[in-house]
Amino acid sequence: MTTHLDISHVSIEFPTPKGSFKALDNVSLKIEKGEFVSLIGHSGCGKSTVLNIVAGLYDATEGGILLDGREVKGPGPERAVVFQNHSLLPWLTSYQNVELAVKQVFRKTKSKKEMHDWIMHNLELVHMTHAADKRPAEISGGMKQRVGIARALAMEPSVLLMDEPFGALDALTRAHLQDSLMEIQKDLNNTVIMITHDVDEAVLLSDRIVMMTNGPEATIGEILHVDLERPRDRLALANDPKYVDYRAQVLTFLYEKQRKVEPIHSVAKNKATPATTKAAQA
Amino acid sequence: MMISNITMASLKDKISAFSVKGMLLPVFGILVFILLWQVGASRVHTSLGEFPGPVVVYEQWNSLVAEHQNERIKADKFYARQEERIAQRQAKDPSYVGTIRDYTGKPTFFDQIFTSLYTVLAGFGLASLIAIPVGILIGLNRSVYSALNPVIQVFKPVSPLAWLPLVTMVVSASYVSDDPMFSKSFLTSMFTVTLCCMWPTLINTAVGVAAVEKDLLNVSKVLRLGWMTHVVKIVVPSAIPLMFTGLRLSLGIAWMVLIAAEMLAQNPGLGKFVWDEFQNGSSNSLGRIMVAVLMIGFIGYLLDRVMLAIQRFVSWDKTQVLR
């Protein structure tokens, strides 16, 4: 297979009052079409920064992003983002939220009827047609995230970027949405980059798990190929020796090789310089 | 002892249940106020007699209503006479085209209220038309904000009374027309109101626009929304709560400013009514001024309620508690 998305030698520096802060150093990753890649690492290691650079919300200081061999600059719907806290417009219904995206992307290519069908189709994918006319405030957190995914899928993105999409949800809802995501992934065969700090989620969903070293100057530490049959069933996998082994490898990386040494005073220092913290979190 | 305690408790429950409906306490408050007013007023003596208490004010209210009705009857008769005369002339000479002259009687209290109301609404409307778009621009763009902020900060605290002479002179100099659509006094009052009341709307709109959630801005960027769509779909809806806070402050200021401006400039309206009564200095004057004071307060309250109703209608968040 050929490279679909190429993250090429990306570094980024953020200006802070105390001089520039290098969050990422020389991150390179090639992703194939239809591949599901997870980025995992301790908080503050720059996972989200990588995603934001791919999304075009941040500009890399060095290096760049190639999509099908072409450099991409600035954000665009072909790299749709599912945000951590859904980011639905609270004044629009589920339908209207998806509609905003569909109108923007397919204004010229689809008729009104086709756009309507496409919106409903995507709400159907995430099982949200019943709440099409409800506003975000009227539905649960898990449902909001579903609509957020429907909105991203409706853009027919080349790459779907997910920033800790299930991080804010309770365990049961999360499991449910992970299953939904696997189903959708099976049907649509999207290229996905997902950020997570949940080891089980990473192993269950991914073809590859990219483990990042701790910042500053974070980069890719190890890459783990997850060679498990699809469709994957979380119950059956729980005792699968391969699954357990993959899980152990990620845990070893996170808690032995990259154990986060974070003395209390450094936390306080981080808080004192919000620009640094922001950059590191993002 | 036990029994009385129980009945006291149940009485308290009943009272609190009733006051939940929001009736008892406000009525109680008003009654206490009227009582204190009556007692206090009778102790204050001025050269125009006793300070008006509630009873006097009520009497003056009735007399103002009666005056207004009389004036309406006179006006109707005046127009009826003119029409009759024209009809008579036309009977003799069919080619005759009569002109009906306006009634020139003194404007009554209620005429002045009406004048003040449409002046304040015109001034406030004009202020909103300027302040909302400018506020959006300032909120969206830091450079525009930096450029305009000093000007805004300097003009914001200026009293209407300082603007008034300038506005008057500019209006008389620039609005020269043989058949004016608006009277100069209306324009002077309106522009003064506009100049004084646009600031809260402008500043609150700007703050609301600047405070749009970063995630929503990112959504807009990822979707590559055009400037207009971005403003209409994302910026304005999220700025609406603060925008309305500004609009309500502005309308309150507009109403206060208008009364002061009318008083100083002798422009028709409630302010002029108050000033005329003060200059008149009859034994009824203080009572009539007090009627005007209460009316000004009541109209101010109604204007705010109307804005609140509009906010409820426009706001997307129906669960938000608005007061």
TrEMBL record, chain A:
CDD domains: ABC_NrtD_SsuB_transporters (cd03293). It comes from the Bacteria. Keywords: ATP-binding, Cell membrane, Membrane, Nucleotide-binding, Transport. It is found in: Cell membrane. Its main location: membrane. It is a peripheral membrane protein. PROSITE patterns: ABC_TRANSPORTER_1, ABC_TRANSPORTER_2. Residues 5-239 form the ABC transporter domain. Gene3D superfamilies: P-loop containing nucleotide triphosphate hydrolases. One of its GO terms (molecular function) is ATP binding. Signal peptide: none annotated. It holds the Pfam family ABC_tran. Belongs to the ABC transporter superfamily. This is Nitrate ABC transporter ATP-binding protein. It comes from Marinomonas pontica. The lineage of its organism: Bacteria, Pseudomonadati, Pseudomonadota, Gammaproteobacteria, Oceanospirillales.
UniProtKB/TrEMBL annotation, chain B:
Residues 113-307 form the ABC transmembrane type-1 domain. The keyword Protein biosynthesis does not apply. The chain crosses the membrane at residues 117-140, 161-177, 189-213, 234-265, 285-303. Keywords: Cell membrane, Membrane, Transmembrane, Transmembrane helix, Transport. InterPro entries: MetI-like, MetI-like_sf. It is found in: Cell membrane. Its main location: membrane. It comes from the Bacteria. It is a multi-pass membrane protein. Belongs to the binding-protein-dependent transport system permease family. This is Nitrate transporter. It comes from Marinomonas pontica.
